[in-house]
Structure formats: C-alpha cells, structure tokens
Amino acid sequence: MSLRMHPVPPVSLPSTVIEGLTYRAVAPADSLDGVNDLFRRTFPDGYWQGSFAAYWRWVNGSPSGPGHLFTASDGDRVVGALSFLSERLIGHGGQYLGVQAGNAMTDPDYRRRGIYTNISHVAFESLAASGVDLVFGYTLNERVLQTEMKIGYRRMGDGVSYVAPLHLGRLLGHRLPALDRPWCRAITGRGLLRLGRWLAGRGLKEAAGVVVREVDRPPAEAEALAVARRDRRQYEILKDLRQLAWKYAPAPVAGGNGFRFLTARRQGRLLGFAVCGRREIQGAPGLAIYEVVTEPAAERPASLALGRRLVELAEHAGLALVACVADENGPLAPVLPRLGFVKTDHRFKGIIKVLNPALPETLQEASFWRHSWGAMDYF
Fold first, then answer.
1. Neighbours of 343 (CB within 10 A)
2. Using one digit for the tens of pLDDT, what is the confidence trace for 230-260?
3. Model confidence over 113-137: pLDDT tens digits?
C-alpha cells in the first residue's frame, strides 16, 4: 500500500498593490535574481553565490509538491519574500497537504512597513486557492511569535531542544543553549553521560534483542512504517521512501556534512530507523539527530536502542555533544534523559494556520501533533 498523492500545482492570483508595493506569487519561469539579491542583503553571513537558487531547486524537488514563493517589489527591486515548502501530513487515518513556512526576508531599508503581514495574507489566499489545507511552522523568537498570532496563526505545541554533553573540554568556550534547570547546569561532561547510560541500562530489557546497524540509505520497509503511522491518533509529517530520499539528498548548503542512517531490527524485522549527521551546533562539534521513526507498537524499545547507538557514535568520533528536538509531551521525552540528554531553553514554538475549513477539528489541537526529533535548520 502506498500513501502517494499527486502534487497540486501552485495557483497564481493577480498581483496586489498595497501602499505602493506590488505583492505577487512567483511563477516557475520567473527569474530569481531579485530574490537572490534580497537574500544576500538580508542574510549576508549565510550568503554564497547562487545559494537561494540552490535552495529553491531543492524545495521544488519535494515529492509532496512544488514550493510556493511570494514577493513584494518596489518597482524592479524585490524588497520582501516569503517561501513555503510542501509537506504531506498523515494521522487519524487521513492525509493532508500542508506547507511549512520557510525563508521570510525583508530588505533592511524597508522594515517596519508591514511587508511581512501583507505578504502573508497574499500567500494565504493563493495557497488556499492551490488546494493547500494548512500552513505550519516554528519560531524561537517570542516577538516573532506575537506577530504570527496577529496575522492568524495559532500555537501548536513546542519542540524542545535536548543536548547530551560528551566532552566537557571541547565544550568550554562555546556558546551553548542554557540548560533548563539549575541542577542540570552543574552536571555536564562524562559524568552526565555515565549517569544516562546507567539509567538506560536499568531499562534496556525493553530493547533486548534489538540489533542496530548503520546502512547506506533509508530501509525499504520505511514505506510500510509510513502506512502504519497514518492510522495513529496523532498528526505528523509523512516520511515514506520518496520523501526520505529527497529530504536527505546532499544538503543544498555550503559545507554540508552528509547524513548517516541506522536501522533497528529484532529477529530481522524492522522496528525503526534513525538519520543523523555531524555538524557544528552552536559553534561546537556535534552530532545532530534529524529523525527517529519507529513502528507504532515498538516505539520505546526502538528509540532506546537507536538513541544509545547514536550517543556511542558521537563519543567514538570525539564529538562534544549530541543534540535533537523532541515533543515536550511526546513518548520520546522520557527516553532522552535515560540516554544522558537534558533539556535546554531552546524551544521551537509550533504554529498553524488552517486554510481548509473542512479539516477535522483535531488538526487544531496541540495534543494531537507530533514534532520531528529534528530538522536541518534547527541548530
């Protein structure tokens, strides 16, 4: 059984003029030169030649459908832009087309003129006409969150950053997220790791017989896992084989370190898999956990076994820490402390804007949402 659906092409509505600026959807054949120049002016530290064009090619390769890009222009000068990544959502036996809010850019010379608010409303209208069911996203900044609330988003739970410190000496001098509790700040380095392993060892009977191995690609059974997870009473991003192959192709950023894949099996049967990658995290050398996907009935043993092996990989590589993002109230949160992870004060505040009034009401309840263990931009 497959969960594939045909991508919905974007619908371009007529351009809109607001206070002398022209707002419109960018068509596939349009030049990206103006947006690329805006990217360079807005994010000079992250710019490299052709960076936005490379990012946009990757977005448009999503199996869930093409990306959506909207701009605000003052004559020939692009002064604002907002992009969206298409993502399929599954849960409660259904499948829905969502878009994740991506890069939001405003020319430094045009800030505080309501460009982001205006471009968002233009985008919502066009996305709804294109058959998009909902928009979702995440933010760290409280002031940004308040702006999102004013333009129609709703809060949808938190993704909490967790860190497992491995080598205290390599962490000294790096700016890391503050730990969530005062006693956590005092327990760092190998002592914390040993404590976590000791606690994990007390409960590893749950993971008995689970064999974790590194593989060169997502397992073929990921398709069956995606089907099984569709019927859970929670919503999450679809992670079938096509989606995984696209998402974890070589990253369209300078200095990408690539991805590693691990599987967890018991007597040859796949219980789950993980995706990780080595990268700088807040300036320190670390291992980022991007995904942990499991069979619904084996979530705890598979997560324990995969998490323990991920920490071991990082320690053997001499890295300073392992980091991931997990639901505050999800089933993985109790697993992480047993593996040496502690909460930080980095919380990715989830937001949602429903565009299709016929959607189930549960789609607007935070308790029914699952956030990924991680994503490429979280750290």
1. 21
2. 887 778 888 889 999 888 875 444 444 588 9
3. 999 999 999 999 999 999 999 999 8
CA torsion 55-56-57-62 (nearest 10°) is 100
CA dist 138 and 237 (Å) reads 14
Nearest alpha-carbon partner for 30 in 43, 50, 16, 12: 12
For 45-153, strand residue ranges (E) read: 68-74, 77-91, 94-106, 134-139
pTM over 0.70, yes/no:
yes
Structure tokens at 28: 């596939």
Biggest CA–CA distance in the chain, Å, is: 66
Rounded to an integer, what distance in angstroms lies between the CA atom of residue 285 and that of residue 174? 10
> First CA to last CA across the chain, in angstroms?
35
Query: Which residues, at least 6 apart from 265, have a Cβ–Cβ distance to it below 8 Å?
Result: 210, 211, 213, 271
